[in-house]
Amino acid sequence: MRLFFAVFVVVIVSSAHGLAGVEINEELFGRSLGGWTKRDHGAAEYPLSGAVYRTYKPEISPTPDGGIFVSVRIDNVRGWLSTDDHAVLEITVSPRGGISSAQSSIAIQGKSIKSEMILGGNEGGKAIMSPEGAVRIGTDLVADLSAKLLRENIVEAGRVSFPAVLRHNYNRLFQAIQVVEPPKPPMKAKPVKLGEDGEVEAPSEPPAPVVPVKPEEPKPPVGPAPETVPLQVKPYGL
Fold it and tell me: With the CA atoms of 154, 156, 159 and 163 taken in that order, what torsion angle do they form, in degrees rounded to the nearest 10?
């Protein structure tokens, strides 16, 4: 009696659970702001509206529904003898790449100015997926912060422009959102048999199905041919 050993080929895949994911392309986001620098510990520094600002790499964490929460710190660089102002931009991205909500806060001269939570949902509560929806969220966010800054009588150029800088970072961050498609499911493993000598044996083909033979119908007996009677033709009227 021959012995066979079954060997199974195991395919290792990532634990993506067959679902699409969303992420932020940090390199693309950094290049759009002038590039990340080692001097500022992974920050991008750039001039805008007559002042200098610094944006740090975003902090990203997953949300329970499969999206991501992104937090970005932005500084208003005011010089050696002045204290920098700070701002935080926060957005929530849905699993399909749409912005669900956005909020921001600014700390100036010991005062904290915080915007309202700008939601990007429609009547059904679903995140707005179109670029037009993202533009509306950014517009509402800047308008809310600008109105609150005016009530604080802040007139310094770098501080007055802070909401516009937040909008600038918001637009760049939206362009860096990427939806990652799930990997294709792996092929199922098939068992391979090894013989006693360790060689892989070719799988045996199943036997051909047996087709029943239909019995032949009996043929009529063959006898002598019947005699033919000659045809007689007579003239008409005789």
Answer: 70
CA distance 70 to 38: 22
Q: Note the pLDDT tens digit of each residue in 22-45.
A: 999 999 999 999 999 877 668 999
Q: What are phi and psi of 74, to 5 degrees?
A: -130, 130
> Between 131-151 and 162-175, two packed helices, what is the crossing angle to 10 degrees?
160
Q: What is the dihedral of CA 135, 138, 144, 146, to 10 degrees?
A: -110
Count of CB atoms situated within 10 Å of the CB of 218: 6
The torsion region of residue 12 among left (phi > 0), alpha (psi -120 to 50) and beta comes to: beta
